[in-house]
């Protein structure tokens, strides 16, 4: 099954999320979790990267999964691989 959302690190943009589902509900969740659309790109970038971006991204991944979405992410951002 293809993921609804893919989250990872982009070399120029930083932490980004791609909405593979093309769902307005997913877009709304991403925005509430601190991601904003990048004009002319098919990704959303995490805002305020000076505020503990790794922990915030792990939290976003957990929240998206709690909503029943399949999320593919880099190892660093997967809350199931990190215990804090």
- Share of helical residues: 25-40%
Instruction: Order the strands across the largest sheet as they lie in space.
Output: 3-4-2-1-5
What share of the residues does DSSP label as strand, in percent?
Answer: 25-35%
The gyration radius over C-alpha positions equals 12 Å
How many β strands by DSSP? 5
Structural shape: globular
pLDDT below 50 for ≥5 consecutive residues: which ranges?
none
Describe the structure.
This protein has 84 residues and is α+β, with helices and mostly antiparallel strands. The protein has one domain (5-81). It has helices spanning 24-32, 53-66; strands at residues 5-10, 14-19, 35-37, 44-46, 71-73. It has a five-stranded mixed sheet with strand order 3-4-2-1-5, covered by helices on one side. Strand 1 (5-10) and strand 2 form a beta hairpin.
Short description:
27% of the residues lie in helices and 25% in strands.
């Amino acid at each position: 099954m293809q993921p609804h959302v893919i989250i990872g690190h982009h070399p120029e943009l930083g932490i980004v999320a791609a909405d593979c589902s093309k769902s307005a509900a997913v877009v709304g969740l991403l925005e509430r979790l601190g991601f904003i659309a990048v004009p002319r790109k098919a990704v959303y970038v995490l805002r305020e990267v000076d505020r503990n971006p790794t922990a915030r991204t792990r939290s976003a991944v957990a929240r998206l999964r709690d909503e029943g979405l399949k999320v593919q992410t880099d190892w660093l951002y997967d809350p199931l691989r990190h215990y804090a």
